[in-house]
Amino acid sequence: MQSTLWIVFERGFLFWLLGLLFFNSAAFAELNPKHSRDLKLLWEYSSKGAINQAPIVRKNIVLVAPSGQALLALNLANGQVFWKYNPQSGIWDRAFAADQELVFAGTRNAELSAIDLETGKLRWSVKLGFQLQVRPLLHEGIVYAATTQVGPGLPMRPERKARLFAFNAEDGTLLWSHETLYYAIQTPSISGNTIYIGGSYYDPELDIDEGGPMAIQARTVKDGLLKWTYFGEEGFIKTIYAAGNEVAFVGYQDFVNALDTQSGKRLWRKDTGNWVPALSGNKSMLYYGSANTIVHAQRMADGERIWEYNIPWGSFNYILGEPFVTGDQLVFLTQRGHVLALKLKTGELLWSAATDIRSRTGLTLSGNTIVMGDDKGGIRAYQLPE
């Protein structure tokens, strides 16, 4: 453990130093006032728990789950509360998703609940017998629940296996479930008729200094039958994204990897340069930020970097969570509270805006409104600059 911490520190220091060396006149040029914008604050709501998962916007409703508090539905226009969902057991603040009709949330008594989007009333609830601590995946009327045996507030049971469940979203009917290799499953990704799930599993005989045993599995959407398994040592998976012929993921080792969707063979592996919190996929492209302040646009087919952008304002001002793709722009929040928009194709800076928000996660966009939460429980909505 000591050596692992030293490697993390050493790597972080190295890229901090490189960031200083390469923070040249070109980077300073991008601080030109012509790019600076003011975000108009539309409203602010104060809760009592940190916001650890980016809000979701459906119709005119903002869904957010402050840590240790109720799931909130706020009016996108003015921030007023439509409803609160607060079961006696409580909910997991990172484990909620929604479509245009229902909100799905993992509760602390190992259940999955479906809540009416408009009214906040419980539609149905099913017992999982496993905890759900990541966002469920919604796809064509099915909700996929990826469970865990290890996580915040849970006893550490890495020797136990978790299950992936598929439910009818309308009424909660179980369609299928499968025990997996993993003690913890990340939110899966679907492309075509295949669902790709990734997670970490326990192997006491492996002694890996940085990373750990992990695997990606491809299963049929219809019944969850196994098609192939990829085994690796990249450590705990943060994000998995499938599109076309490739499925990409980033793990604890902070390399982006891509596998062939038909065979599961690795196509390429690229070093990200530093710690990466998550990645976003948009068709055949990947977008993510690393802690050395670099934003990356990477082609899924071969891993080629199409462009890179160096975020100004000092070292470690990195992207929080997943950057948001909207139209021809990539919009994101940084660790120091800056909101930036880049051209999706070229990485050119379109505009930037400074805020005093200190967040743990990224932002959400709906139309011309940005919604984000901070580590104190504040939830804010801003109007996008023209």
- Overall tally of structural domains: 1
Strand content: over 45%
What is the CATH class name?
Mainly Beta
Query: What's the Cα radius of gyration?
Result: 21 Å
- Strand count: 33
Largest sheet properties: 5 strands, antiparallel
Tally of individual helices? 2
Low-confidence stretches: 1-29
Helix content: under 10%
What CATH architecture would you give?
A: 7 Propeller
Shape: globular
Q: Which fold name corresponds to the CATH topology?
A: Methylamine Dehydrogenase, Chain H
Structural class: mainly beta
Roughly what is the average pLDDT, rounded to an integer?
90
Question: Would you give an account of this structure?
Answer:
By secondary structure, this protein is mainly beta. The chain has one domain: Methylamine Dehydrogenase, Chain H, CATH 2.130.10.10. The protein has two helices and 33 strands. The strands form eight sheets. Strands 14, 15, 16, 17 and 18 form a five-stranded antiparallel sheet that branches. The protein starts with a helix and ends with a strand. Mean pLDDT is 90; it is low at 1-29.
Helix-strand blueprint:
Layout: H1 2-22, H2 25-29, E1 40-46, E2 56-58, E3 61-64, E4 71-75, E5 81-85, E6 91-98, E7 102-107, E8 111-116, E9 122-127, E10 137-139, E11 142-146, E12 163-168, E13 174-179, E14 184-185, E15 189-191, E16 194-200, E17 214-220, E18 226-232, E19 237-243, E20 246-251, E21 255-260, E22 266-271, E23 279-282, E24 285-289, E25 294-299, E26 305-310, E27 324-326, E28 329-333, E29 338-343, E30 349-354, E31 364-366, E32 369-373, E33 378-383
Antiparallel strand pairs: 1-33, 2-3, 3-4, 4-5, 6-7, 7-8, 8-9, 10-11, 11-12, 12-13, 14-16, 15-16, 16-17, 17-18, 19-20, 20-21, 21-22, 23-24, 24-25, 25-26, 27-28, 28-29, 29-30, 31-32, 32-33
